């Protein structure tokens, strides 16, 4: 969750508050506009997507004597590398507003239509997604240096101290898919990553926090929590087998079992193991293979654990990946935010979340 002051947090918790939206446009280090007029705006985040964040904005075509149709290459709404900084402000009363960053977004499309300009912008991982490798990338050095070689200078990488760097084996080639190479590296490392609201790529050990940032109770404060009744065994696995190659050319393997969920190994889902297989040249020892298997199992369980839809008074500090506590008639426990929508303009529409239970 985005850090807010105690006063702002208490005002949000009251369920009755007003917030403001400010959007700036930057091209490199040049500020193109510090106050883009917004008539409507929505942020959508889905952790299942390669680029999780997407915003849509509606902007008056003419405002204060200025045309917001992007007619020049360096126009604030042109899609030539322009980035939008979205900031939200909580009204604290007495003409005081507490501002905080919601994030940076790269303009993908700006489409003038009638009296408005419709703008679509994506999270900064889109810079890595669109930057295909021109020639095979052959890393040398360590996991950290390889990750930075794939990502920087588009994004500055911050690596959590809980991750241990290690040497990359020789002979690895990555072809074309730069973001795919980043994701493979993270799996082999036992890591997760996301772009922070300040625009950095934060790399941390895989696994959700067990400390909730928010408590959501069905019916309390207008919150509505509904269990998703859909159920499928498609892509349901209770064992992950990760394989690699040791320095002497022999195969190494690590296995991680799901012992806790509804499709757990040894349960009624299937009397036999249902494995997911993963292989990477970055894995060279049994402990590395075991760590990779546990990482992938954690990610797979995110997509198959019990799902709830939440409709609530908006909390503008909430982020995808946050752990929340939820209470319904038939479930009480921790869940992780997998999807969210957040309106940017008043009157602020109710916020919707998709959360999955931590089993």
The count of strands amounts to 21
Strand residue content: 35-45%
Q: Indicate the structural class.
A: alpha+beta
Q: Given the structure, what is the number of helices?
A: 5
Distance between the termini: 21 Å
Radius of gyration: 22 Å
Mean pLDDT: 93
Order of helix and strand elements from N to C terminus: HEEEEEEEEEHHEHEEEEEEEHEEEE
The coarse silhouette is globular
Largest sheet: number of strands, sense, barrel closure: 13 strands, mixed
Pick out the low-confidence regions: none
Helix percent band = 10-25%
Quick recap:
The chain is an alpha+beta fold and 359 residues long.
What does this structure look like?
This protein has 359 residues and is of the alpha+beta class. The protein is 15% helix and 39% strand. Strands 1, 2, 3, 4, 7, 8, 9, 13, 14, 18, 19, 20 and 21 form a 13-stranded mixed beta sheet that branches. Strands 10-12-11 form a three-stranded mixed beta sheet. Strand 5 (62-63) and strand 6 form a beta hairpin. Helix 3 runs antiparallel to helix 4 (178-189). The two termini are 21 Å apart. The mean pLDDT is 93.
């Amino acid at each position: 969750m985005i850090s807010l002051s105690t006063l702002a947090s208490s005002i949000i918790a009251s369920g009755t508050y007003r917030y403001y939206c400010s959007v700036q446009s930057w091209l490199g280090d040049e500020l193109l506009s510090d106050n883009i007029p917004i008539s409507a705006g929505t942020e959508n985040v889905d952790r299942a997507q390669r680029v999780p964040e997407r915003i849509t904005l509606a902007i008056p075509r003419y405002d204060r004597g200025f045309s917001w149709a992007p007619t020049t290459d360096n126009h604030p709404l042109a899609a030539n590398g322009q980035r939008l900084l979205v900031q939200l402000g909580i009204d604290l009363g007495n003409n005081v507003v507490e501002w905080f960053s919601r994030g940076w977004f790269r303009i993908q499309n700006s489409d003038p239509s009638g009296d408005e300009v419709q703008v679509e912008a994506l999270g900064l991982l889109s810079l890595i997604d669109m930057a295909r490798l021109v020639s095979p990338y052959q890393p040398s050095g360590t996991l950290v240096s390889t990750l930075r070689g794939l990502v920087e200078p588009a994004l500055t990488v911050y690596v959590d101290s809980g991750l241990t760097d290690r040497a990359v084996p020789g002979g690895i080639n990555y072809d074309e898919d730069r973001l795919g190479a980043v994701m493979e590296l993270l799996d082999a490392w036992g890591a997760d990553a996301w772009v922070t609201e300040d625009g950095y790529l934060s790399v941390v050990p895989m696994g959700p926090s067990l400390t909730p940032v928010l408590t959501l109770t069905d019916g309390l404060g207008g919150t509505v929590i509904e269990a998703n009744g859909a159920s499928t065994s498609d892509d349901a696995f209770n064992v992950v087998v990760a394989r690699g190659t040791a320095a002497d050319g022999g195969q190494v393997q690590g296995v991680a079992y799901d012992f806790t969920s509804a499709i757990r190994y040894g349960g009624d889902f299937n009397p036999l193991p249902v494995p997911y297989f993963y292989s990477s040249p970055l894995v060279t020892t049994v402990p590395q293979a075991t760590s990779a298997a546990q990482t992938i199992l954690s990610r797979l369980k995110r997509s198959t654990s019990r799902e709830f839809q939440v409709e609530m008074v908006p909390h503008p500090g909430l982020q995808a990946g946050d752990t929340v506590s939820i209470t319904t008639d038939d479930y009480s426990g921790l869940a992780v935010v997998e999807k969210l929508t957040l309106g940017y303009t008043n009157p602020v529409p109710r916020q919707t979340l998709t959360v999955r239970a931590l089993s």
